[in-house]
Amino acid sequence: MRKRIELSVVVPIYNEEESTPVLCEAILHVCQSLAVPYEIIFIDDGSKDGTPQVLEKLHQEYSNIRVIQFRKNYGQTLAMAAGFRAARGKYVVSMDGDLQNDPADIPKILHTLEQGYGVVCGWRKDRKDKLVSRKIPSKIANWLIGKITRVPIHDNGCSLKGYRRSVVKQLPLYADFHRFIPAMSTLGGAKIAEIVVNHRERSFGSSKYGISRAWRVFLDLFVVSLIVRSSARPALWFGKFGLVALLAGIGCFMIFLAYNISGIVLPSVAFMFFALTGHLVALGVLGEMILATGDYRPGQMVRDGILAINRDKGASLHE
Q: What are 50-72's pLDDT values in tens digits?
């Protein structure tokens, strides 16, 4: 009988031919010391160097190494999402494939998850990156993300994170949403912890990220903020803005009537506000319909091991 997988390590890889064997060796060393059933899932995100051949060799050598290969480069978020879907472990740990994350932090992450947390975020407190192009933009982005999403994490960009499988399987990941996993996980009520992790300088190759991607982060931040704030009660959220637009339209129309103002400017503005009110109300209703018919179900948000139904005794709940 096959043992149940306890730990899945998910590693997106893109053009890391030299780093991959070293990283794999380090992860294997840590996982073997844990003495639990584990698997390592490498996701080759359309590498153009010798990474696919390296991964194929590792897969043939080790039975607990699985490899997912993309036809082309789809980005880190989709690579992580593919790894999360394939993961079979009770706990899932993700990390970068460039050796800057340290596999030696995995036991610390697992220990924190076992204390009841749904997501454990790594914090690269002593980050080994360039100050102007990486550290300062990262601090600004993390401060903004914390303020807007109301999930204050020091280092959203750190890929070294741990999750309960029940949490990570529900995450709707696309675009560059891997930075917003802590905020997105709050949709399911996950309890979040943050721990300081080791960070190392790059040993091989060059970074795939730069300041030019900042605009995409801000665009994704707006979308994530909208999802996090409106997902529970979309009609109420859109209704607040609809009410403001309705009052503005009524105000413009009353001024037009009270002061007998000539021209079509005020009636036109009032009409635009009324039309905006209708659009916002329609969006709210659409959101409620999606909420009622989609996968966002309170029954799927129960944490593993917290509640169990004793069917023999009639649906009683136990800690």
A: 999 999 999 999 999 999 999 88
User: Of 12, 14, 9, which Cα lies nearest the Cα of 205?
Assistant: 14
DSSP three-state, residue 129: coil
- Angstrom distance (rounded) from CA 92 to CA 250: 54
Residues of the chain with pLDDT under 70: 1-2, 175, 205-215, 231-232, 291-319
State how beta strands 119-123 and 161-164 pair. Answer: antiparallel
**In Å, how far are 9, 232, 238, 275 from 290, measured between CA atoms?**
33, 11, 14, 23
The DSSP code for 49 is: S
List b or e across 187-210, with b for residues whose CB sees 16 or more CB atoms inside 10 angstroms. bbebebbbbebbbeeeeebeeeee
- Residue 43 token pair: 């996701």
Length of the chain: 319
Q: Is 177 strand, coil or helix?
A: helix
> What's the rounded Cα separation, in Å, for the pair 151 and 188?
14
The helix/strand/coil state of 155 is coil
**Rg of the chain in Å (alpha carbons):** 24
- Closest Cα to residue 12, out of 53, 59, 45, 40? 45
Q: What would the two tokens of residue 108 be?
A: 């610390």
pLDDT digit string (tens) for 188-236?
778 899 999 999 887 776 666 655 666 677 777 777 777 777 766 777 7
Cα–Cα distances (Å) from 240 to 53, 252, 307, in that order, read 55, 19, 36
Give the pLDDT confidence score for residue 226 in this predicted structure.
Answer: 72
What are the angstrom distances between the C-alpha of 298 and each of 178, 189, 302? 23, 10, 7
Cβ–Cβ < 8 Å for 97, 13 = yes
Q: Give the residues across from 199 on adjacent strands.
A: 101
Q: What is the pLDDT at residue 304?
A: 44
Pair type for strands 38-44 and 91-94: unpaired
Among 306, 239, 231, 311, smallest CA distance to 276 is for 239
